[in-house]
Amino acid sequence: MSRARGASAVDRPAEGEQAVARQPRVFHGWKLVGAGAVIQALHSGFMLQAFGNYAVVLQRDFGWSRTLFSGAFALARAESGLLGPLQGWALGRFGPRIIMQIGVVIMSAGFVALSRIQTPLHFFAAYALIAVGMSMSGFLSVTTATVAWFERRRARALSLSGAGFAIGGIMTPLVVFSLETYGWRWTAMASGVVLFMVALPLTTWFGHTPESLGQPIDGLRPTQAIANTVRAEGVSDVHFTARQAMATRAFWFISAGHASALLVVSGVIAHLSLYLTTEQGFTLQQAGFVGGALPVLQLVGQLSGGYLGDRVNKRLIASVAMLGHMGGLLLLTYAVHPWMIWAFVPMHGLSWGLRGPLMQALRADYFGSTSFGSIMGVSSMIVMLGMMGGPVIAGTLADITGSYQLGFTIIALAAGAGLTFFVFATPPAPPAERSSS
């Protein structure tokens, strides 16, 4: 019989004891949430919420049309959406860490390429690289890893992780300052370097599962989980495959509702600064403060949504948020006084924050975490229609009519109508019951 080097079989702790001994003192799930928040903050601050400000300075330097910027934004969203099913498969096959590391490298290279552009083709190519890298290292990968660690605290965990997006938006005035002071080429180059140096080390947190560390879901021992009996509507111990999820009404309604909301979100991200500077007489710095205020309210909404989402019907919260998206954008569109613009900020920001983390929490509650990456990947092909549609509708109609009014009105009303999708996105029956009925 062989012996372990330096210890007898009697001396070696039992397998269960080894698992307990190697458990970190702090629940790893929360470490992963923090790392995800930082990575998403960098994505948001450096590009996603800064896109409109880059559009302003690039239009000033090159004279490019609003339709061109809308097309670039939409193309990037389409690229991310079409990548979704493949990325979902890859996350299940290789795990989040390696996918995120590749994404960070690609996104950093995209920023370096952006700093060297001279033509629209160069711009589209650089932005495509950034979009692919952001997709691989960001939202879908972070969310897939997070839902594997949480159930009862799922909405809270997703809201804290997603809070990085809002925190990144708060950086908008700093990005604007850099664009105005040092120029967009230097800002893009510096963004790529910082992203590589900060985000790449953080991806190492995504290389573990609860089973590999011997930690329980939510960080709760069985007795604690029993005591914490609150479970949100639709939370199930049944895990759907992507094919089974697609056979439910809930899958399509959640995806359609999510896409409806993103008509407003993407339209505002892409065109808020252009709208404020061309139609409301704002300077780029003033527009940056409005854009920077939005994530502050988004963060408040996100933290509130995470707390409420584990206790209150998520579909109800999402439905109310859709009315906030619609009302806020209509106020902005028809603003004749500054207070109307500033009223838009809490209406849209809070709605965005409240609704955002619940989109993923609803899917995980209904369909489980085992095939979550694949389910989200397929859903992203529907959701991308909202991310593409908002900027294209707003920008194209603005070039045709000379104003954002018609385009903003259309996407605002479409988002309001989208609340019906959440109303009817009731929890699905388990696959076994569906097949026998």
Could you characterize the architecture of this molecule?
Helices cover 77% and strands 0% of the residues. α14 packs parallel to α16. Residues 1-21 have low confidence and may be disordered. The protein contains 21 helices and no strands. 54% of the residues are buried. The protein is mostly helical. It has helices spanning 15-21, 28-48, 51-62, 66-94, 96-114, 120-137, 139-147, 154-170, 172-181, 184-202, 210-213, 222-227, 242-246, 249-279, 284-309, 314-333, 338-367, 372-401, 405-417, 419-423, 431-436. The protein is globular and about 55 Å long.
Describe how the helices and strands are arranged.
Elements (H helix, E strand, L loop, with lengths): L14 H7 L6 H21 L2 H12 L3 H29 L1 H19 L5 H18 L1 H9 L6 H17 L1 H10 L2 H19 L7 H4 L8 H6 L14 H5 L2 H31 L4 H26 L4 H20 L4 H30 L4 H30 L3 H13 L1 H5 L7 H6 L1
Helix pairs in contact: 2-7, 2-8, 2-10, 3-14, 4-5, 4-6, 4-18, 5-6, 5-7, 5-10, 6-7, 7-8, 7-18, 8-15, 8-17, 9-10, 9-15, 14-15, 14-16, 14-17, 14-18, 14-19, 15-17, 16-17, 16-19, 18-19
